[in-house]
Amino acid sequence: QVNLVESGGGLVQxxxxxxxxxxxxxxxxxxxxMGWYRQAPGKQREFVAMITRGGITNLADSVKGRFxxxxxxxxxxxxxxxxxxxxxxxxxxxxxxxxxxxYWGQGTxxxxxx
Length: 114
Description:
Elements: E1 2-7, E2 10-12, E3 18-26, E4 34-39, E5 46-51, E6 57-59, E7 67-72, E8 77-82, E9 91-98, E10 102-104, E11 108-112
Parallel strand pairs: 2-11
Antiparallel strand pairs: 1-3, 3-8, 4-5, 4-9, 5-6, 7-8, 9-10, 9-11
């Protein structure tokens, strides 16, 4: 059993910042890829960012220059630092971890509004 718990979402004004965290717990040897997707109301889920165990990252074009993904392998945690947030960033953000298969968190709401 592998569990993922996200935290750090909330309401922020345009131009503001948030830092999401996703802690992974359970029975596994190591975590390979970790990352984030998001889903806005009425839209399909979209890729946001990913990071390999070795620290190689990839981000969606829409968030490059504003979002940073990082991870702490010792703590089995992945982070998403978001700055210069825009209303179009409003969505439920879900993290994933690739262990024996891909596991997902429940999601955390990020709302960017004045």
